[in-house]
Write a structure and sequence with these properties.
alpha+beta, 2 domains, two-stranded antiparallel ribbon, 3 helices, about 35% helix, about 30% strand, globular, binds zinc ion
């Protein structure tokens, strides 16, 4: 109930979160070296219907695959490899009430994220977030 040890840990955690939110540069300087030990919640996860979810801390973006025209090669926006039509898909991400962004990603997302590395994934997340909250009557 009144475990002082636990309280300290929680406080340290929230300070770290706050720092990351307010001063991302400072946060990276202070905690960046520890990222490999305890990775922050950042990653792309396959969800239902071929969609992908990009999770970064408590933020979430949903990537919906869309039909593509033409036969040009695709350029993955995460690992920056050039892919054939069968190896990548274009996705739509809703980033605001009436704003969407289009990104191309390799279809096997795990090796893609491996090629991109933590740094690549971070840069990619920064292009997507923050997402504007969508009000109930703005759908
Ligand atoms: Zn890729």
């Amino acid at each position: 109930m009144n475990d002082p040890h636990r309280k300290t840990r929680e406080q340290a955690h929230s300070v770290q979160d706050l720092l990351r939110e307010l001063f991302p540069g400072t946060h990276r300087e202070l905690f960046g070296a520890r990222d490999s030990d305890s990775p922050p919640t950042l990653g792309l996860y396959p969800v239902a219907d071929g969609r992908l979810a990009l999770v970064h801390g408590d933020q979430l973006a949903e990537f919906t695959p869309i039909e593509q025209k033409g036969k040009n090669a695709l350029h993955c926006d995460l690992c920056h490899y050039t892919r054939s039509r069968s190896e990548a898909l274009m996705y739509r991400v809703t980033i605001g009430a009436r704003r969407s962004r289009y990104v191309t990603l390799c279809t096997p997302t795990e090796p893609c994220q491996g090629r991109a590395g933590a740094r690549g994934l971070h840069a990619f997340a920064e292009r997507i977030f923050p997402i504007e909250p969508i009000g109930p009557d703005e759908h």
